[in-house]
Design brief:
17 strands
């Protein structure tokens, strides 16, 4: 019995035209032959079947099976060809047979009107599908008929489906039905239902988003008809209820707005024509329009890919009002700024003019102080030279010596005060220029060794300096002034004790220190001593006329150079003043000749040429130098000096010259002329009250020594000793 399934099973896999009705017909026929053959012996009066005679030579058991299978196969083929396969059968057949071959086999196969009704009902509902089919046929549609559908009926069904699921989806469904595609129809319907539901949900979300947007929106199709909008758009243009409908030509909306003056002045049809032309060209546009009611509407339109336009409308009235207010505020601010700028310009001009006047006053004051200093230094210098000469003269009357010493101290204090006042004046007027350079510190310290070593006897001070080989980066003249004031202060307050000048390394810096064994400074007086005219009450008996400007000058010079000034002091034990200077690395220090200390006896026979236009200065130098057993030549000018040299028939060992001579001549030029005339590098010392930095640099550049008035006799003796 089960063998009867074999023909339909093989046909379902390999034959394209097999269907359910052919299978049933072949199966029933084969079973009938099988049961008939089995019951033949008990049916005596039944005639022998002719087919059995045709196969009479075969064994009885095999004859029955073969006969039933042949009948089954014949009726299966005949029934499949007689009856058309259903839509479900054709779809299911695509699972087992070759797709392309199966599509060719079933293409063009008929489909019944009942099946089309069933298909349409799944998408549009049974009632709507039946109504549509009745309208198409023009009479009552028989829902139970199995009449094949015509091509027009199929197209009508596809059009009906497209109204619900779209043209593409409807075409896909109809092709699946007519051509027997792999996808089961129920699955296709469920898929389309799900997609339709999602599309509907997306449309609802999109519509909700558009409705809640702050801007008005409108959408037109490729035929320039209104398709969608939101309530904000209707509110912005105050459209009457029911005016906006789907499919309304956009030209009517433009005309309606133009009639209300929303498009500006001009002909209404011209407004309509220009705007429609822009829409037809598919060009993006953006513009603002101020309406008669005062609202400012911003409109921005963009074309869509497949035709149509989407336009947004924004009410920017408030923004434009704020913008106008900002413009007015900006204009007012610019006016105020312009007025204030003019006022500031006038104030700046006044300040510049006042500053210029102050600078001129300071410059005039500096020049005046320099001139006064030079004029005052001349008689003071002469007087000091006279007193120095008298002090070296042995007098039998002690009170005369004491009187001369007091005069010398007073002159010294006056000269120091005048020099300090000139320095303070320069510092206050910023007239001091800083010129930094590399130089060995020994070059500076050796000069102090010679100068203050000669003065140690006068102050009863045991002075000692320690050599230092480091190279520093500083202004040598200003640094000399700082250390010189430290030493002067130490000599003044450390009389009878020891004074030490030395250096101490601190990383990339070196600290120059001056130690003394003076009275020390109380902690509450440390800050006061760097102010002008501040001095301790218990100064040395050798220098009670100091006015306290030396440390103030040192402090101000340190501020100009940016150096750290240090002080450590203990009352009754002494003080340490220091200044920290940057060190230069990888610098080779030139060899320095040792400075010899010599006394008066070593100056015996030294020929000294003195050039000064002041008679008193020459007389004072003559008296002082002769006390040192020097041979002196006194000259008031270069010409006079040449005459003296020619008369003595010999060159001087050293020249001492004042800077300012008669007829705008200078002592520096005079010494240079003598060197050039006699072709000999005669040592020279320029003695002047002019402390200009440029002059000091020029003197050192020409290999002369510089000494500022008033000249200390001990320092002059040390310089002369060093030069010879």
């Amino acid at each position: 019995v089960f063998v009867q399934i074999l023909p339909s099973l093989i046909g379902a896999i390999y034959w394209k035209h097999g269907n359910k009705k052919g299978v049933y017909l072949g199966l029933f026929s084969g079973l009938f032959i099988w049961f008939y053959s089995l019951g033949r012996p008990v049916i005596s009066d039944l005639k022998t079947f002719s087919l059995m005679e045709w196969i009479g030579d075969i064994e009885p058991s095999y004859n029955l099976v073969l006969a039933s299978l042949i009948v089954n196969l014949l009726f299966y083929i005949w029934g499949s060809l007689l009856f058309r396969p259903s839509v479900r059968e054709r779809l299911q057949a695509g699972i087992f047979v070759d797709r392309l071959a199966h599509e060719k086999a079933v293409k063009g196969a008929a489909i019944s009107q009942q099946e089309l009704l069933m298909l349409a009902s799944r998408f549009v509902g049974h009632d709507k599908a039946l109504t549509s089919f009745n309208q198409f046929t023009g009479n009552a549609f028989n829902r139970h008929t199995n009449k094949p559908a015509s091509r027009q009926f199929i197209d009508h069904t596809e059009l009906l489906l497209s109204s619900v699921i779209g043209t593409s989806s409807a075409s896909l469904v109809m092709h699946s039905v007519l051509e027997g595609r792999d996808m089961p129809l129920d699955d296709l319907v469920d898929l389309i239902d799900e997609a339709s539901s999602k599309i509907l949900t997306s449309q609802q979300l999109m519509q909700s988003a558009i409705e809640h947007a702050s801007e008005g929106m409108s959408v037109i199709d490729q035929n320039h008809n209104l398709m969608a909008w939101n309530q904000r758009y209707a509110d912005l243009f105050n459209y009457p209820p029911g005016f906006l409908i789907v499919g309304k030509p956009i030209s009517e909306l433009i005309r309606y707005n133009a009639q209300r003056g929303f498009c500006g002045e001009g002909d209404i049809e011209d407004h309509v024509e220009r705007r429609m032309q822009r829409v037809k060209q598919g060009m993006s546009y953006y513009f603002e329009r101020t309406r008669p009611d005062g609202k400012v509407i911003k409109m921005q339109g963009n074309p869509m890919p497949y035709g149509g336009f989407v336009t947004t409308f924004s009410d920017i009235t408030q923004y434009r009002q704020v913008e106008r207010e900002l413009v007015r505020a900006k204009e007012d601010l610019e006016v105020r700024v312009s007025e204030r700028t003019k006022e500031l310009s006038l104030a700046n001009e006044s300040l510049i003019e006042a500053k210029s006047k102050v600078e001129q006053v300071n410059l005039s004051k500096t020049r005046f102080m320099a001139a006064i200093g030079h004029d005052l230094m001349q008689p003071l210098n002469a007087a000091r030279l006279f007193t120095a000469s008298l002090l070296q003269h042995e007098s039998e009357e002690p009170h005369v010596q004491e009187t001369v010493r007091h005069i010398a101290d007073s002159l010294k204090a006056s000269g120091q005060l005048l020099a300090d006042l000139l320095d303070i004046s320069k510092l206050e007027s910023d007239a001091i220029e800083v010129k930094l350079s590399h130089f060995p510190l020994s070059q500076l310290l050796n000069n102090f060794d010679a100068e203050f070593g000669a003065m140690s006897g006068d102050y009863s001070v045991d002075f000692k300096s320690i050599r230092c080989s480091v190279i520093v980066h500083s202004d040598i003249n200003l640094l000399r002034r700082i250390v010189q004031n430290f030493l002067t202060n130490a000599f003044r307050y450390g009389s009878g004790g020891k004074v030490l000048l030395g250096c101490r390394r601190e990383g990339d810096n070196v600290r120059i220190e001056v130690w003394d064994q003076g009275c020390g400074i109380a902690a509450d007086k440390v800050n006061d001593i760097f102010s002008e005219f501040q001095r301790l009450e218990h100064s040395s008996v050798y220098d009670r006329n100091g006015l306290g400007l030396g440390l103030a000058i040192a402090d101000r010079i340190c501020k100009v150079l940016g150096y750290k000034l240090g002080l450590h002091s203990q009352v009754g034990k002494g003080s340490v003043f220091s200044v920290t200077v940057p060190v230069v690395k990888d610098y080779v220090e030139p060899a320095q000749a040792p400075v010899a200390r010599i006394g008066n006896s070593q100056l015996a026979g030294v020929v000294v040429l003195c050039i000064d236009n002041e008679e008193k200065i020459l007389v004072g130098l003559d008296l002082l130098l002769k006390r040192w057993q020097c041979t002196v030549m006194l000259a008031k000018s270069l010409e006079h000096a040449i005459e003296l040299i020619d008369e003595n028939d010999g060159l001087p060992d050293i020249m001492l010259a004042d800077y300012h001579l008669d007829h705008d001549k200078t002592g520096l030029d005079a010494m240079e002329a003598l060197r050039a005339k006699y072709d000999h590098q005669i040592p020279g010392v320029l003695i002047t009250a002019d402390t200009r930095k440029e002059l000091i640099e020029e003197v050192e550049e020409k290999n002369y020594k510089y000494m500022a008035k008033m000249v200390r006799p001990a320092a002059l003796r040390a310089v002369i000793s060093g030069l010879i």
